[in-house]
């Protein structure tokens, strides 16, 4: 369930989302639209509970019916039973407290750390990306790892992952492929 917060963090329903005037925010919005489109597998412009369940199964973290109900309840602001692009963007552009953000990063890291050894290898990155329909080669995955690997061991530790995800330039740099 915690991993879901990294994708669909909790939001205070009484406050509107903050405006997104910066270039980084606009780029982040495009990145979020790309993620939304991955979730919206049938292309109808909304994410259903079954589409959400399929993503979690692909990532190796199947969600229970109860978890899906909770996640949908947190994200479906208008109560129509689906998550629209607008709801998805609103949910993912709000401020999250530091403790929750760290927990979310740990859960996101665990999705990539398939063998649970505390680091992400080129093979693990490639497997996870393929499981969500990305067609990165091992060479491309190695290049991604090399761009984050601070100690030169060829792996991404949690600290390196956290540094990458928290870097202000991450949103701009990670969307170079988005068209």
UniProtKB/TrEMBL annotation:
Recorded superkingdom: Eukaryota
SUPFAM superfamilies in the cross-refs: EF-hand
One Pfam family recorded for the sequence: EF-hand_7
Keyword line: Calcium, Metal-binding, Repeat
Any one GO molecular-function label of the UniProt entry: calcium ion binding
Domain EF-hand, residue spans: 27-62, 63-98, 100-135, 136-171
Its biological purpose: Potential calcium sensor.
Protein name listed in UniProt: Probable calcium-binding protein CML10
Natural source organism: Phoenix dactylifera (Date palm)
Top-level taxonomy: Eukaryota, Viridiplantae, Streptophyta, Embryophyta, Tracheophyta
